[in-house]
Structure formats: structure tokens, C-alpha cells
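Late entry, evening session. Most of the bench is empty. Finally got around to the prediction I had been postponing all week. Sequence below, unchanged from the version circulated by S.P.
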Amino acid sequence: MTAGGRLGDPSGVVQGAPRPVGRGGGDRLRKVAILGLIVVFLCAMFSAGLASPARADDDVSTVLKKISDLERAIQVSRQNAARYQQAQSQYQRAVAAANARIAALSNQQLNAQSQAEDVADDIAIAEEQMSLLTLQLNDTVAYVESLDAAIDEGTKMLAQREAIYGDHLRLVYRQYRVTPLEMLLSSANLADFAQRVQLLMVVARQDQQLATDIKRLKTDNEDKRATAQLKQAEVEGLKVAMTQQRDALTAKRAYLDQLIVDTSAARDATQSAKEQFNDAASNAAQAAQSEQARVAELQRQRAAAEQLYAQLAAQVAGRFGLNKAYPGGKLVQWPVSGTITSYFGNRCFIYLRRNYCDFHTGIDIAAPMYTPVRAAAPGVVQYVGYEAYGAMIVIIGHYSNFQTEYVHLDNRARPPIVQAGQTVAAGQVIAYIGMTGLTTGPHLHFMTILNKTPVNPLPYLP
């Protein structure tokens, strides 16, 4: 199986296994025609003795090699330009990603700074509250201490009242052991009796008041002590809670401060990487432009070399009858007998597990290795050599605008047996079936070229 390719310089011909669509065309045929005319020129120079054959061959071979080298250099430069453009796109995407990350990090830093400021305010408030609670706790402690002093004083007063109350009780007890008659009889007079009764009543009222005071003092002391203890516990609890809140805020502030530092460092690193990506993208763009300029210069050089070929070939085009246009008719015979495995025109196929579609510029005729390949009609050998993908080819000119091309010939055990400039007869063996270039099996890729354009060989074959 083969695929059609560019027409022109045989070193640029693409024959054989699959290749990208659109690589075939008139450029290759133009080069083939030019090369054929050059070969004719060499033959004419040799036959007519107009110049030294070795000198002419050396000059034309040098220019031919230059065209081949230029074609390869053009392909390399195009590939390099494509790689540089791809690298530029990758770096530009990296720059865009870096910009997005820088924006995200900037937002993160701003948010962290805003939160840190809020936390700082909360810490200040917590410190103020802690100061107030400390004052309250100090006041409560002082109040408790004053209560303790008051309780101590009340306790002493209570003890005194209890002592007085005891004395009163003992006095009353002694008085109540005397009957009123005995008190009357023991009194000096009625006035003394009345005074003693009144004293007993006063003592009774005082005892009642002492008992009430003692009960009230005990109750007040206990209430004050309980209130002070509750107040102290409450303030201490608030202080513990505020201490925990302040510690939590301090830890959060430390985290936010570290986050700000880390975010700033990450943003700076990303900015540095972005600048490197920008420089790399700029360098890749410059390299791509340089390669594109190189392609243009190489194409200019190739066009100049091809123009030189055309000038040389025009001088001797008529000496071998190749200045006559194809008058019509068929070729004398088939170049080889075998099965056609691929026809002229658009086709799709699988090669190395991949699907390919292209325009096939000839027909593929399967045949065993080393099967003789014969000239399909009489003519002059215009080229014997390799195309860009390594296939050995022979091109035979039959008229000024009509050639046949034989591709994938063997180049080792049985290389071509004709040379450029050699006249061949129809049916003469020119080479042998091989597998050079891109091919999936031994076969011949046979082309017919009319007016620098590949045409279907079948109508021209007998």
C-alpha cells in the first residue's frame, strides 16, 4: 500500500505508507519535470561534447543536492516553528494560570488581613473585658474580706448578746422562782413591789429583743457570706471564660498572621514564575518568528535553484525529443504483473493501528520481492534515487509533459539497473520490487504524470 505525495524534486516525493492528507500536489510534479529536463541536459552535454560530462554532472548534482537539502531544511524549520508556537501557547496558558493564582492569593491575603484586623479588635475588647473583670474580682474579694470582718464583728456582738441574754435568763429564772405574794411580802412597800414588777417586764422585753437581734444577725451574716461566695465564683468563672476566649483569639491571630506571610510568599513565587513564563513565551515567539523567516529564506533559495534548473533544462529540452507534448494513446505495457491493492484517488486505510485518509496519486500493484519492474513505454530515465521518506524511485520521461514513476524499488540485493539520462525501450527491466520507504509489503507504486499532475494510470495502461 502506498500514498501519493508531492511532485517535483524526487527527494521530496512522498511515496509508500500512509502520510498526512494534503502532501500531494503540483509542486512535486513541477520538480520532477525540472529534474527530467536537467537530466536531458546532462545527456545532451555528454553526447554533443559541448562540455565536460563530469563537470556538468558535478554542477547539476550539487544544485540537486542543494534543493534536496533545502527541502529538508524547510521541513525541519517548519517543524521547529510549530514546536516553538506550541511552547509559546503552553507558556501563555501557564501565564494565565499564574495570573489567576496571583489574583486568588491576593484575595486570600486581603481576606486574611481583614480577619486579622477583626481578630485584633476582638482581642482588644477581650483585654478590656478582662481588665474590668479583674477590677470586679478585686472589688468582690475586698467585699468578701469586708464581709468576713463584718461577720467577725457580728459574731463578737452575737456572743455578747448571747452572754447578756444568758444573764437575763438566769435573772428571770431566779425571779420567777419567787411567787408574787413572796415578792409583795419581801417588798419594803407597794412602790418597791411595783418597781420590781416593772423591772421584770423590761427584762422580758429586752430578752425578746436580744433573741430577735441574735437571729437577725445570724441570718444577715449567712446571707452576706453566700452572696459574696456566689459573686466571687461568678467573677472567677467569667475571668476563666474570657481568658480562654482571649487565648483562642490570640491563636487565631497568630494563624492569620502566618497565613498572610505564607500567602505573600506564594504570591511572590507565583509572580516570579509568571515572569519566567512570560520570558519563555517571548523567547518561543521570537524563535518561531526566526524559524518562519528561515523558512521564507529557504523557500526563496529553493525557488532560485529551481529556476536555475529550468534554465539549464530549457537549453537542451529539444535534443531528446522531450519537447513534444503527449499526443494521446496508451502505454505499451504494464510495468509488472500482479494484483492491484490500492487504486488512484481518495482512500482511507489503517496503518500501525491508526486510521488514515489521503489522496492516492497512483496504483499499488502487489508482487513478490525482486520481481522485475519494466519500463511501461520507451523514454529517457530522468531520475534514479530516493524520495524524502526513503523510497527508491525511477522516473522515466516519455514526452515533455508526460512521465511515469516507479516507487518502492529494492536498493540492496537488486538496486535499479538504469541511470539518469539513459534511454530505455518499452519492456526493458529498470529495477526490482522492494520495500523501501514507508510500505506495508512488497509492491510497486506506479504513477502517470500529465502536465505536472498525477492522473489515473489505468486509462493509460493497455
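Two things to note before I forget:
The chain has two domains: 10-51+321-460, 96-279.
The chain has four helices and twelve strands.
Will write this up properly tomorrow.
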